[in-house]
Structure formats: C-alpha cells, structure tokens
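Researcher: Here's a chain I'd like modeled. Treat it as a single chain, no partners, no ligands.
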Amino acid sequence: MYQQMIFVNLAVNDVAASKKFFTELGYTINAQFSDENCASVVISDTIVAMLMDKQRYADFTKKEIADPTRTSEVLLCLSAESREKVDELCDRAIAAGGSAGGEAQDHGFMYGRAFDDPDGHTWEIMWMDPAAVQR
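Model: Modeled as a single isolated chain. Structure tokens:
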C-alpha cells in the first residue's frame, strides 16, 4: 500500500552542525541524499527533513529566505508516543544545542513542548491520549 511522504525543506546556516544536532536527537542521515550542501534527516518512514544551506535552498524558491530567529516561517509538529517521550526529545534537543520554545502545554488529554533548533526553526513535540480522538 502506498504511503504518502512529507519532505520538509529547511534552510540552515551550517549543514554539518545541523547533521550533528539531529543525530544527537536520535535521527539518522540518509547518505544517498546528503552532501556538503544538504542533509537528508530521516525522522520516520514517511517524514524526512531536508536541511539545506541557504545557497542550495535558494535553488528551489524565488522568495526571500526567512530568518527563523526573527520570523516564523513554519511550525513543525511531531507526535510522540507518550508524555515522557515529549520530554525526552525536547530535553535532548536543548542539551544538543537547541533552545526551549516556550512553556509546556498540558491540557490533560494533550501534552506538548517545543524547541528551537540551532537555526531557530521551531519544532513542537506533542502527545495526545488516543482515547480523546473521536473516530
């Protein structure tokens, strides 16, 4: 069965530093689609972050590249399997050189935190109680 994928493309200041940061979070780099200008970070079987230096990123857009330390270009949200996994990933991100992205949000059935990666992109990590999801 076909599974649709998402490739999140982000401009970064230093591809090598970005590779190091994301591998410290437990993700892998797909060497087949990575080089000195781009890192293909495998987040899951269906989610890949393509981290490109600004020159390479500019090959894909005619728009001005946002400075994520000053403006919000996108909020990336990843699910986690538990509250503890939310905290683990956010704590690892901060220890690896990211920064806290605000206060934890605890709504009982849903819990989330966020971090900014070293380039300023905001990554939200969220857990939701499966029993709270209406089907």
